[in-house]
Amino acid sequence: MKADYFAFLLLVILGISFTSIAQVSEKGAPTNASDSKLASVQVAWTGYKRVNIVIDGSSYTFKAGQVRVLQLRPNIPLEVFIERPGRRLAVKEFLLIDPNGGDLLISIQDDNIVFTYKTSAENEQIIREIAPNMVAIEGGTFWMGFTWEQEDEYKYNEKPVHEVALSGFYIGKYEVTQAQWRAVMGNNPSYFGNCDNCPVESVSWSDVKKFLRKLNELTGKNYRLPTEAEWEYAARGGNKSKGYKYSGSNALGTVGWYLDNSGEKTHPVGQKAPNELGIYDMTGNVFEWCQDWYGDYRSRTQTNPSGPSSGSFHIYRGGSSGSTAKDMRISGRLGRLSGGPGYMGFRLAL
Questions:
Q1: Which 8-state DSSP code applies to residue 149?
Q2: CATH classification of 129-345, choosing from 3.90.1580.10, 3.20.20.70, 3.30.479.10, 3.30.420.40?
Q3: How do residues 197-219 score in pLDDT, each as one tens digit?
Q4: Residue 349 DSSP one-character state
């Protein structure tokens, strides 16, 4: 009941203060006294593209589309004010905080201010759910590069076709989501934010390496990026491959979000059909970083290749919500510096 009371009190105060300019709605209110997290509260904000949020005396400026995540200290209530340029609104509230701490997410999307509170226990559960969603890939041999089903749309860097032998490995059934990134890193860098089940994006290769180090510290596992060869083998369907042009089908729209059907934004993972191995979104949604440095193919047979030992660019694969159909083909490959703007995401391997 205590949690219900605090959530209700926050809604009442916000509702009174925003009577003339906003509407307040409650999402996912706590259902019992043991659930001590603050319910998610959304304030519909009209007429302004910029707002300041003052927390414990520190002012944070938000613009439309920006996202901040603030670490909460255990048992310490936060004093929150909402400001618009020129004056502070009469909003003051002490948020109910889980004794174990958690994350307070504050974002502005399409003129909405969104408060979301995640407890440490919730974050730990999100991290625990990563392992069951790793798909076991049996080792095998395949032809890598511009094979016949890719038709006449190849680029120079997709040749020569060469034989690759791989040992077994695990790869993520889904692209890493915004919720997973936030649970590990305490922030959400995504341009298309405020969508827990959408893939995290706008992350650099270096950002991903930091995520992996922290995730492995939390889990005791050895998560990593897939090599380029592992990525392509999994996208082709491994030893269950049916020789599709895209990952899971020759009908692009059934398996991938791309320029013609995405609205040029990301979508929750797993909404399209999976490929032969039960893996989703290897075609489209976000580009996926690989472990390798970018390099030209060689014609010789290779076993468990990991790419050049050094380079200037890192490989990324798979196409994105902003890509044309040509760039969604399984054999398509691109390289860039480690910077992260754009539809840059990833999936895990083990």
A1: G
A2: 3.90.1580.10
A3: 999 999 999 999 999 999 999 99
A4: B
